[in-house]
Amino acid sequence: MATPVLTFFNNKGGVGKTSLVYHLTWMLSLLGVRVLACDLDPQANLTALFLGEDELESLWEDGDATKTIYQAVKPLTAVGDIKDPRIHFASDTLGLVPGDLALSSFEDNISSEWPNALGEKNLYRPFRIATAFWQVMQKTAESMNASIILVDVGPNLGALNRSALIATDYIIAPLAADIWSLQGLRNLGPTLRQWRSEWKKRRENWNNPEFELPSGAMQPIGYLVQQHSVRLGRPVKAYDKWAKRIPEAYARYLLNHDNHSYPNSPTNDINCVATVRHYRSLVAMAQEARKPIFLLTQADGAIGGHSTAVSSAYEDFRRLADSIQKRAKFDQA
Ligand SMILES: Nc1ncnc2c1ncn2[C@@H]1O[C@H](COP(=O)(O)OP(=O)(O)O)[C@@H](O)[C@H]1O
Ligand SMILES: [Mg+2]
Questions:
Q1: Residue 76 Cβ contacting ligand 1 at under 6 Å
Q2: Rounded to an integer, what distance in angstroms lies between the CA atom of residue 107 and that of residue 49?
Q3: How much distance in Å is there from the Cα of 14 to the middle of ligand 2?
Q4: Residues with CB under 5 A from ligand 2 (ion)
Q5: What is the pTM of this model?
Q6: What pLDDT score does 329 carry?
Q7: Which ligand neighbours the alpha carbon of 288 most closely?
Q8: Dihedral angle sign, alpha carbons of residues 296, 299, 301, 306
Q9: What local confidence, expressed as pLDDT, does residue 232 receive?
Q10: What is the mean pLDDT of residues 69-92?
Q11: What is the mean pLDDT of the chain?
């Protein structure tokens, strides 16, 4: 059976997607879940959180080894087939398929083969390219016996992300309480519906698939609201103004629900998985130490008040991991 894929997606950048994937994969693995993180953002920010600069450099240099997602799918741009990437293990139970700046060049291949999946013959290649990310992630997850795959993507609605999303079972939308996130939801809903239906048409067109295909469910299972702006000088009033419109926007645009009655705040909305606190100086400290905020120690500089903040961050993420595990229904070891 395929390993479930959970993608953090929103066509707005800077809402904490990458940071959430990093912290949640770490927390899940600490809770005993075998987890695979996959960096499908060509900016490779997630990979940079896991690896130091020297390690990054050696990932991206040309060579025979297959060390990134791009190197795994690259043979498809010529006459070859998908390769198995080497997993970067952050811990025994946490693997990463590293990202790659060169991944953006694969977008052209995805775009040009997409119409061909509706053709009458030679369907192997168009489907291989359209599902390349899913194939790589599934095979890699299986090799490490992972229960869940968490995916980080860039903030746009192009062909690369369409491929990431047809590989996706569950979506969580990280949001900020501002006009850009609200507007983002308006674009996201119709785009997801279009991608689902385009993928369904293609699947129905291939009567006898020669390899397994993803379902393309892309089921939204909730949103997260960043509390940042409250602390960073924007008045609480501005935060509240946008925050109270989130429940309706999420239900209307992402779930296509039109029930005329919506909660007036994310705090009493069942679709709100959590609000994410601003961790202030712990963020820089954690990046410096190259570990999650909740694993900072005194040796990393987390003393006094910081140490209390580290413990409460641990609790925040433990609860968040628990709640996501219930929504996405994957196995907890
Ligand atoms: N909970 C948080 N508290 C403080 N800073 C955060 C938090 N989450 C993210 N950030 C910071 O905000 C910036 C954007 O976050 P990032 O995860 O890269 O967002 P995205 O992937 O959506 O673009 C980064 O500098 C990150 O360190
Ligand atoms: Mg990011």
A1: no
A2: 24
A3: 7
A4: 17-18, 45
A5: 0.96
A6: 87
A7: 1
A8: positive
A9: 56
A10: 97
A11: 94
> Which ligand is located closest to the Cα atom of residue 15?
1
CB of residue 45 inside a 6 A radius of ligand 1: yes
Q: Distance, CA 19 to ligand 1 centroid (Å)?
A: 5
Ligand 1 contact via 135 beta carbon (within 6 Å) = no
Lowest mean pLDDT among 68-77, 185-194, 236-245: 236-245
Select the CATH number that applies to the domain covering 5-280 from these four: 3.30.470.20, 3.30.365.10, 3.40.190.10, 3.40.50.300: 3.40.50.300
Which of 15, 18, 19 has most ligand 1 atoms within 8 Å of its beta carbon, as the pocket-test mutant?
19
Helix axis angle, 305-328 relative to 281-289, nearest 10°?
80
> What ranges do the domains of the chain cover?
5-280
* Residues pairing with 67 in the sheet: none
d(CA 138, CA 39): 14
Segment among 62-76, 156-170, 235-249 with least mean pLDDT: 235-249
Strands 35-39, 148-152: pairing is parallel
